[in-house]
């Protein structure tokens, strides 16, 4: 005998067995409505969302979802004002879109990339799909070194601003203003119509998160992706930061992601190496740690163009084309997931999130292949935000510094004494 379904699809006239429940109803502890699939859920949205609107009407403030609980928040998008592109969308995790501020202005005197006004990177589009990798001249590399140093400075300033309660929109303002101070253009702004000056990807967001009014919460992780355009060249960098007290699972993920980037640079980047080798090294390290590598996005060439050849996948057994030569400039930027490697994109056409709603982390450097190896143009400095796993080493470093200074002074005295003979 065929078993009767426990729930029936709430869509009028459907009647199929249903197990998919509206996530907003679950989060807000509203009456149970079940649907047989995404199509029925979307087709019923126009009527079903009134359930949420009625629930909001009984509350004095708009509701937002935080830590799986409904709580008041003035900046959250209420159901009655939600972007229509998100109508009926089933979120994979707890992250939700929040209100966004207007696009920030760039002073007229600052030089702009070709897409700044139109949103269209025409030269990139023209070269798209090509596999030719052009080496940069010594003068090009000097300019790249300069803009990459600026990008590192801006990222470090933004990273030090991360704390519980700050919004990613405020972080975007910090990044924007620091770019302007340096007479640089924030490369993401209006690139293919991206509306902000940096990308901020929180928790399950893989990449390309749009800064908004959501306050960061204790225990969150946030990736800040910064690119500057200055003197005709782009410099690209990103890091994942901890908000408040780090959670152990987040520390393991972020640490493994950073280690994977470092191993890829140390073991793979030198003249004569294949670009496809990078993904093998990254995958081997993160898979051993129990994590997975995103396959939808890759590292890329960079210079006068924001994105160009080569394309550099971060997963193993990829088919990346090309051999590294001195003067090649590119990024490595692995996106590593706590769960499986699948991702999906929000209806805003930018925000990528993990399909299982688990955490994702990322780190990125811009580098140039040299005659003997590699120069990381966006290398960390003494002003960079320290990693929590480095704190145990700091007391040892502090103890070693006086000894090193004493040895240096002794050597200097010996050199002076020897020079007087």
Describe the protein in words.
This protein has 421 residues and is an alpha+beta fold. The chain is 30% helix and 18% strand. It has nine helices and 19 strands. It has helices at residues 23-27, 38-43, 45-57, 122-127, 138-161, 168-181, 248-268, 277-288, 394-419; strands at 20-21, 34-35, 63-66, 69-72, 185-186, 199-202, 205-207, 221-230, 233-242, 292-293, 299-301, 308-312, 329-332, 335-337, 343-345, 352-354, 360-362, 365-369, 374-376. Strands 5, 6, 8 and 9 form a four-stranded antiparallel β-sheet that branches. It has a three-stranded antiparallel β-sheet with strand order 7-16-15, with no helix packed on it. A three-stranded antiparallel β-sheet has the order 10-14-17, covered by helices on one side. Strand 18 (365-369) and strand 19 form a beta hairpin. Helix 7 (248-268) runs antiparallel to helix 8. The radius of gyration is 25 Å and the shape is globular. It starts with 19 loop residues before the first strand and ends with a helix. 40% of the residues are buried.
Which secondary structure elements does this structure contain, and how are they paired or packed?
Blueprint lengths: L19 E2 L1 H5 L6 E2 L2 H6 L1 H13 L5 E4 L2 E4 L49 H6 L10 H24 L6 H14 L3 E2 L12 E4 L2 E3 L13 E10 L2 E10 L5 H21 L8 H12 L3 E2 L5 E3 L6 E5 L16 E4 L2 E3 L5 E3 L6 E3 L5 E3 L2 E5 L4 E3 L17 H26 L2
Antiparallel strand pairs: 1-2, 3-4, 5-8, 6-8, 7-16, 8-9, 10-14, 11-12, 13-18, 14-17, 15-16, 18-19
Helix pairs in contact: 5-6, 7-8
């Amino acid at each position: 005998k065929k078993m009767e379904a426990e729930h029936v699809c709430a869509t009028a006239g459907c009647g199929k067995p249903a197990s998919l429940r509206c996530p907003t109803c679950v989060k807000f502890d509203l009456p149970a409505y079940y649907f047989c699939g995404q199509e029925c859920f979307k087709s019923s949205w126009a009527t079903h969302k009134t359930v949420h609107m009625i629930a909001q009407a009984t509350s004095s403030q708009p509701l937002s979802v935080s830590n799986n609980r409904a709580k008041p928040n003035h900046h959250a998008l209420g159901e009655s004002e939600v972007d229509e592109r998100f109508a009926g969308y089933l979120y994979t995790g707890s992250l939700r879109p929040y209100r966004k501020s207007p696009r920030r202005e760039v002073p007229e005197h600052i030089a702009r990339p070709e897409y700044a006004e139109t949103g269209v990177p025409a030269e990139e589009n023209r070269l798209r799909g090509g596999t030719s990798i052009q080496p940069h001249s010594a003068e090009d590399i000097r300019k790249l070194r300069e803009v990459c140093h600026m990008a590192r400075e801006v990222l470090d300033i933004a990273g030090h601003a991360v704390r519980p309660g700050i919004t990613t929109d405020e972080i975007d303002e910090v990044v924007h203003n620091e770019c302007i101070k340096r007479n640089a253009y924030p490369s993401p702004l209006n690139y293919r119509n991206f509306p902000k000056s940096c990308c901020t990807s929180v928790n399950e967001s893989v990449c390309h998160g749009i800064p908004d009014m959501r306050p960061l919460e204790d225990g969150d992780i946030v990736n800040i992706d910064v690119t500057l355009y200055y003197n005709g060249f782009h410099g690209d960098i990103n890091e994942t930061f901890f908000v408040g007290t780090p959670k152990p699972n987040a520390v393991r993920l972020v640490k493994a992601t950073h280690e994977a980037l470092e191993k890829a640079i140390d073991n793979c980047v030198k003249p004569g190496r294949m670009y496809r080798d990078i993904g093998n090294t990254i995958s081997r390290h993160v898979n051993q740690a129990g994590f997975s590598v995103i396959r939808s996005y890759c590292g890329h060439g960079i210079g006068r163009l924001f994105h160009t050849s080569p394309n550099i996948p971060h997963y193993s057994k990829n088919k990346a084309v090309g051999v590294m030569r001195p003067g090649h400039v590119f990024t490595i930027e692995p996106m590593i997931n706590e769960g499986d490697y699948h991702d999906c994109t929000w209806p805003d056409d930018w925000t990528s999130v993990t399909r299982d709603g688990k955490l994702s982390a990322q780190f990125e450097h811009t580098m140039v292949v040299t005659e003997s190896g590699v120069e990381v143009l966006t290398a960390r400095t003494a002003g960079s935000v320290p990693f929590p796993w480095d704190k145990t080493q700091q007391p040892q470093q502090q103890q070693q510094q006086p000894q090193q200074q004493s040895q240096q002074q002794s050597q200097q005295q010996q050199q002076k004494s020897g020079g007087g003979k």
